[in-house]
Amino acid sequence: MSSHSAHATAGHPAALLHQFDTADQQKDASTLGMWLFLITEIMFFGGLFIAYIVYRNAYFDSFVAASHTLNIPLGTFNTTVLICSSLTMAMAVHSAQVGNRSRIVLFLVLTLILGAAFLGVKVIEYADKFEHHHVPGPSFQFTEGGNPKNAELFFSLYFGMTGLHALHMIIGAGILLVLIFNASKGWYTPEYYTPVEMFGLYWHFVDIVWIFLFPLLYLLGGHLPPGSGGH
Amino acid sequence: MSTAIESKETRNYLNAGYDLKSWLLTLDHKRIGLLYLFSISFFFLLGGLFAVGIRLELLTPPGDLFQSETYNKLFTMHGIIMVFFFLIPSIPAVIGNFLIPIMIGARDLAFPRLNLLSWYVFMVGGTLAISAALMGGIDTGWTFYTPYSSTYSNSNVMVTAVGVFITGFSSILTGLNFLVSIHRMRAPGMTWFRLPLFIWAHYATSLIMVLGTPVVAVTILLVGVERMFRIGIFDPALGGDPVLFQHLFWFYSHPAVYIMILPALGVMSEIISTFTRREVFGYKFVAFSSVAIAVLGFLVWGHHMFVSSQSVYASLVFSIITYLVGVPSAIKVFNWLATIYKGSVSFGTPMIYAFGFIGLFTVGGLTGLFLAAMGLDVHVHDTYFVVAHFHYIMVGGAIMGYLGAIHFWWPKMFGRMYPEVPAKTAAWLVFVGFNFTFFPQFLLGYLGMPRRYHQYPEEFQIFNVMSSIGASVLALGYALPVFYLVWSLKKGEIAGANPWGGTGLEWKTPSPPPTENFEETPVVTEPAYSYHKEEFELVKS
């Protein structure tokens, strides 16, 4: 080993890793890596979005009818909750920048609470689908218009897309717990808060995915009466 | 010579630790490259064994050696193992991992832990694929076409699909790591247009890995979900569209072909310039042609669906864009030829592979244009013509490039030269065996022999026998290096830092390199391949 690894105290998270020359370079690399990761996520969700668009065009009536059964007030509430959680996350990053330790913890906890609220509402919505037999599978029933087979496809995509989104929220909540723990120990300083900032990018991304999911699944075609024939 | 002996005694990445832990928990990109080398060599052997089964069955016209179901499993496992577990990781994960940080003058990749993780992810996926084979195999073809894969196949689709899904993430991590490293870890003076073309090729490859792999991941996920819960994303009986699967699958899997070939194209630029002592002709054109291939590669997937009920107008556009891929590919070939022209060419083993590569890649590329022609494609679709075409690219191109790279950088990796005579013999065996194996398949396909059948009319036997004999020669050519390369680890001539007189940064550090790659961060002052300068100076003096 050369002198490169001797920049910061070993074991500390802020330590400069041996492959980097400067802390700036290290942070730049993390940021670029995170953005690239988010691009892979866009491509991952992209496959589902394409499937949804293709089938929505193919089975327009059934998709509108199925979309009408979603609970728009709950969806709107959840959208608000997520946007607020993005705000608290941005505040957490800001607090890290200015080095206010207790505020980092406070805003991270608030973000976690809002995230949990979102997931809680999602549980209520999913439970409702189970009650009405709107969960794809042998017991699926759909009498609200359109072709039940195609409505089932809508709900397959609905559960696929919102489920994958919820999985990202759950993973995010897990990471938040770690961040809160580390932040309470004072690991994040104005010189080193890369994890908080990177997680912020991730959280905003998950938020934006929902911003696309909500109109696509809940709102589009909402003005059309069920079975109107659409275009 | 004295420096060579010295370098053997100094610390390097190989003698930095000898216990198992120092390998399995290593964060050194060079050691991780070697971990990949051992793993993918094993998968190559496994995929090769399945091919042996295929070629044995096809020796005779009736399906007399294997039942049709067993045969389906043989070609499926051959395809899955070779594509996902050998070809895609081959050059990037082994050679790229080893060389990219050294070539750009860095101490390691940007994310060494992610790099190690990618190997473990790869091994988990690979283990699942092997267990699927042991549990009785899978018979869907490597393309997993629905609704057969999602509904009707009774083989181990789930285990294999999960294996491929997981392995995809190792590819994503590798690509992400390369992109960030090439952007952020270059040594002082290493500007974009001083980068070796090997790096440009890997940059383009990484773009495909990062942008394409997630799409195939979600597609395979949907197949799995459909299989488990009987929902109808791709099953027409449930309202789904099987052609949508083909679109999503080929959106990744066509660019995946460029994941296999682009790194080999990069290797060729390195070998050809070193063995002709010349700067690569038209450096910027060759560099940008890699990126162009990656970009165009994302816009041609529909040429796999000319007979799958795709709109004829869509097919027309896909056909034209597919022709366009020929442009950057031809730029590379012509520029290599211009590099060789009037160069002082020496015929070391890597150069023999390079010459073989140029010829085979050209044949593979030109027959790709045949297949891009919509009318002709209807005639040869799903015949041995297609099989021959993509083997010219994947085996004649990618594996020739891989073997050339292994020989070219072997002295750097292990500090010892391979023995030249057996190496040249193996290179010729590979070239001759390859052509004997796959050229007859062009004829078979044109005459109408469909792929994926275990029996065929008697008039096709002569070509199939040629193909099977050629495959035996090819197998010999692949087996030989195992022996002489292992032998060379102990008995090979000491290589020294720069056995080929190359100009890249990798030749400016001892062989094998120290763990930190360079004693001090190198400063780059001239473009890549500045051979002409030193020769010019020589003439002047």
Average pLDDT of chain A: 90
Q: State the order of secondary-structure elements of chain A, H for helix, E for strand.
A: HHHHHH
What would you call the shape of chain A?
Answer: elongated
CATH class of chain A: Mainly Alpha
Counting H and I runs of at least 4 residues, what is the number of helices of chain B? 17
> Which oligomeric form is depicted?
heterodimer
Helical/strand content category of chain B: mainly alpha
The major beta sheet of chain B can be summarized as:
none
Number of domains of chain A: 1
Q: What portion of residues of chain B belong to β-strands?
A: under 5%
End-to-end Cα distance of chain B, whole Å, is 26 Å
Roughly how much helix do the residues of chain B carry, as a percent range?
55-70%
Instruction: Calculate Rg of chain A over CA atoms.
Output: 22 Å
Radius of gyration of chain B: 23 Å
- Would you identify the CATH H-level superfamily of chain A? Cytochrome c oxidase, subunit III, four-helix bundle
What are the segments of chain B in which pLDDT stays under 50 over at least 5 consecutive residues?
A: 1-8
From N to C, what is the helix and strand string of chain B? HHHHHHHHHHHHHHHHH
- Tally of helical runs of chain A: 6
Structure, explained:
The complex is a heterodimer of chains A (231) and B (541). Chain A is mostly helical. Helices cover 72% and strands 0% of the residues of chain A. Chain A has helices spanning 23-58, 60-68, 72-98, 101-131, 148-184, 194-219. In chain A, α1 packs parallel to α6. Chain A is elongated and about 60 Å long. The longest helix of chain B has 36 residues, at 68-103. Chain A binds chain B through residues 1-2, 4, 17-21, 25, 28-29, 32-33, 36-37, 39-41, 43-48, 50-51, 54-55, 58-59, 136-138, 147, 149-150, 152-153, 156-157, 160, and chain B through 101, 106-112, 172, 176-177, 179-181, 183-185, 210-215, 217-219, 222, 225, 229-233, 238-241, 244, 247-248, 515-516, 519-521.
